[in-house]
Design brief:
The protein has 489 residues and is α+β, with helices and mostly antiparallel strands. It has helices at 15-26, 51-59, 63-66, 90-93, 108-121, 166-170, 234-244, 294-315, 319-346, 355-365, 367-371, 468-471, 476-479; strands at 4-11, 31-34, 48-49, 71-73, 76-80, 83-88, 103-105, 132-138, 141-146, 151-159, 183-193, 201-205, 211-215, 221-227, 250-262, 266-267, 272-273, 277-279, 285-286, 391-394, 397-400, 410-415, 428-434, 442-443, 452-456, 462-467. 27% of the residues lie in helices and 28% in strands. 45% of the residues are buried. Bound molecules: flavin-adenine dinucleotide (FAD).
Length: 489
């Protein structure tokens, strides 16, 4: 059998591997994604996309298709002693530079199925019912051997193969797991109840806080129930729900998915090996589901990694750019573990017995992680911060800044009047945005970025910014924070 040659082999077609393959294909890279399963997820697992993920989806033209399928939810409520004692959404309402200030409640299966279908249409379907059995680093990159004995030569391999990652184990990357002895039941289904249904995340306070009701898309609802031991029955979980929502009662008319999981927490010691093998998603970070950050963090890994591979493979950027994947994403993974870890422990332990209120306070404190909007790749100022989405007009037609961005390129946004002559590399698209309607071109009334030139990375974080009177004296290398390579990317 001859050896096929591609840019990137992706191990695992969960949401993260699928997103890596889809983004790679959009950038014009050749990818092969391999998965042991025979098809994408049908039900269960992650249930919410956060506001930052919704912005990232827009960069890859996925937002319009996914958004109408989900249910917006911006409120966390506490129910105790037969009534709601608080309802909060301030951490969503106060978000700046974003138009979808909420979770989109939508099952992981929708994300996987849409991406799986896109890859088929891109003539690059997932190789199903196939596993990866060996990976060797050689002088040309990586040689991957599949279970059907086929060999594939590639520049890079991405291990997006989940929490029990073969790739991570194969390269002996330490992944020490903390087990806080907390067990949950999770039930998705159609409920019948005299409790008035609200589109809010409800945390119920009984002796502790061991029940949460999560609104979902379509006609289903989800319940998380913290159980005292691993050996529990479905009936015991339902009993806990009914005790928590007294004086009301609830039963499931239909069950779509029922599972249990024990909380495990870990971050891989390294996110890459010899600049060739990269880990993404659950392969390099696992934690409790509280705060709904697993899928969101994994998708953000994919958006961080793939444009960097594109710049290295197509535009000669240095491998230092690839290494920044770990220096940017590992601290995020660590902060996600802290946030979800604090949340999950508060459901069991409280000094004042007010577990549910404590929980919502932690959500508020950790809102940067939970909304995804607090993630930044730089200490302070504009460089490393996310680009704000703002209203933009083209003549009289209204649009939003994010609808103009394109994941395959950098974008230099020039906010102000006057002409600017620049000699830029081909991977930077320039968009001039005037302060008022000039009859043609884009304009905005927003006070963000006035008289600034803002260089935006493909994943919509700000690479650099300068005042307009400085821009012409900048040469392209000075626009980038990571030096080396032809264009100092
Ligand atoms: C009950 C539950 C509830 C959750 N709720 C949430 C939530 O509300 N919000 C949230 O953000 N996250 C949630 N998560 C977490 C979320 O599901 C995961 O973070 C997400 O699935 C990680 O995606 P991934 O692509 O990294 O890994 P996975 O989805 O695990 O995909 C890995 C893929 O790799 C394949 N694979 C493994 N080994 C090989 C091999 N050797 N060769 C080929 N293929 C291989 C597997 O078949 C699998 O398809 C939840 C998880 C669970 C279990």
């Amino acid at each position: 059998m001859s050896t096929q040659v591609v840019d990137i082999v992706i191990v695992g077609a969960g949401p993260v591997g699928l997103m890596c393959a889809y983004l790679g294909q959009r950038c014009g890279l050749s990818t092969i994604v391999v998965d042991t399963s025979d098809g994408p997820l049908k039900v269960g697992r992650a249930d919410a996309l956060n506001a930052r993920t919704l912005q990232l989806l827009e960069l890859a033209d996925l937002f319009d298709e996914l958004y109408p399928l989900g249910k917006p939810c911006d409120t966390s409520s506490v129910w105790a002693e037969g009534k709601f004692i608080s309802r909060q959404s301030t951490w969503w309402e106060n978000l700046e530079g974003c138009f979808h200030k909420h979770f989109l409640m939508l099952g992981q299966a929708y994300v996987e199925n849409i991406l799986d279908d896109k890859l088929k249409k891109m003539q690059s379907p997932v190789r199903r019912s196939t596993s990866v059995e060996n990976i060797q680093i050689n002088e040309k990159g990586c040689l991957t051997t599949l279970s059907n004995r086929e060999d594939i030569q590639s520049s890079y391999v991405i291990g997006a193969d989940g929490s029990r990652s073969f790739v991570r184990d194969h390269f002996k990357i330490p992944f020490e797991i903390v087990r806080p002895q907390i067990v949950w039941a999770v039930i998705d289904g159609v409920v019948e109840t005299d409790f008035q249904k609200v589109p809010e995340i409800i945390v119920f306070q009984a002796e502790t806080s061991d029940v949460a009701w999560i609104p979902r898309e379509g006609k289903i609802d989800r319940f998380y129930v913290r159980m005292d031991t691993k050996d529990f029955t479905f009936e015991e979980a339902i009993e806990k729900i009914n005790r928590a929502m007294r004086p009301h009662s609830l039963r499931f008319k239909e069950i779509e998915w029922y599972s249990q999981f024990s909380v495990k927490e870990s971050v891989a010691e390294k996110f890459f090996v010899q600049d060739r093998i990269f880990l993404a998603g659950d392969a390099c970070h696992i934690h409790s589901v509280n705060g709904g950050q697993g899928l969101n963090t994994g998708l953000a890994d994919a958006f961080n990694l793939m444009w960097k591979m594109n710049m290295v493979l197509k535009f000669g950027a240095s491998t230092e750019l690839l290494q920044s994947y770990e220096s940017e994403r590992k601290p995020v993974a660590q902060s996600v573990i802290e946030a979800s870890g604090e949340l999950v422990r508060s459901t069991k332990y409280s000094e004042t017995g007010t577990h549910a209120q404590d929980y919502v306070k932690i959500v508020q404190k950790r809102a940067g992680n939970i909304t995804g909007m607090g993630i930044r790749y730089g200490e302070q100022g504009l460089p490393g911060s996310r680009l704000f989405d703002i209203e933009i007009y083209h003549g009289t037609a209204k649009t939003r800044l994010y609808s103009l961005l394109d994941y395959t390129q950098f974008t230099l946004l020039i906010f102000g009047d006057g002409k600017v002559e620049l000699n830029l590399p081909e991977f930077i698209k320039v968009i001039h945005i005037h302060p008022k309607n000039e009859g043609e071109g884009y304009w905005t009334e927003s006070s963000s970025y006035v008289n600034q030139a803002v260089l935006v990375r493909p994943d919509s974080y700000i690479e650099s910014s300068m005042s307009l009177d400085q821009i012409e004296s900048f040469t392209s290398p000075q626009l980038f924070r990571i030096s080396n390579g032809e264009y100092s990317l």
